[in-house]
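If your schedule permits, I should be very grateful for your opinion on a structural question. Thank you for your consideration; the sequence and its tokens are set out here:

===
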Amino acid sequence: MNAHASSSAPDVSAILKPRLVVVAVIDNPDDAVPLAEALLAGGLNVIEVTFRTAAAAEAIALIRRALPKMLVGAGTVLTVDQARKAAAAGAQFGVSPGLNETVLAEARALKMPFFPGVMTPTEVDRALDLDCRHLKFFPAEAAGGVPMLKALAGPFAHTGVQFIPTGGITAALLPEYLALPQVAAVGGSWMAERKLVAERAWPKITALTAAAMKAIAALPPK
């Protein structure tokens, strides 16, 4: 598959609408479609396939081809080459753990929505200067979690910045993060941990996803 992202890039609001992004490490491309099907069965249509394995690009292409309802992003995009491979595979958005301006520029050239990672006020400031309003906050728990995001809201909330905290977040912490006005969505891997994917524990992944979506549905609207 060689679906260029510019022809299929969704609106950012569609990506963030479920308020949850599954961060998945896929070692075997054969697991990609069954994993995405398990997530859809649990009520979630957004997955971020990380470029931590050689299977990432193929996994993205397979899901895009088989499941048009699934919004498929590329995670851990660290280089321009990875951004190009992600777009060529059909990735509809990209995510990075840090703020790499060269990679961000390439993603924009590819017309691929991109969420760069930030952790400090200086990085948030730089991202806003680059006209990025949706930022991955990483590593969320290690970087201070909910209290840190509340602190960042002080000087930055009026800019309209929205965070996607990721890293160390569990099902139990999900409501606490989503209660923050400046959090658009949460990135998490607990629904589809690498071990669960390798074991092909699709019913368990569906159950964990459904539980997360139920918790989100129970939250008061913002």
